# Entry
Amino acid sequence: MMTSEANRAGLEGLRFIVVEDEPLVARAIVRMLERSECNVLGPFASTANTFEALARGEEFDGALLDINLGNELVYPLAEAMRKEGRPFAFLTGYSRSAIREDFRDRPMLEKPFSSAELLQFLSRTFAKKEER
# Structure
């Protein structure tokens, strides 16, 4: 069952920003996250909308960024997040070699992906660490 997987993966209750311009893809990602008991901010289809949410002081545990947002690239948002030390990863159809060189070290999951692949990726990248 997905709930117990999410709990074991350390994702339950985490809040993710989703930046994706394709409505069907955005809805699918949101559904995958919500089924894993994550909270979702967005989805946002542009960097401007995402910057507005951040300016309102929205808190999050990780941002999931598509690189190509139609008529713009997500790099200005990624630069701001990196500068502020905010956690983010790319969910993209691009291969790692097509990502701008200064962001190739960032976590990345290549589309298309399954719900299980996304859950595993998020667990490796953003999971809460057990405190003991």
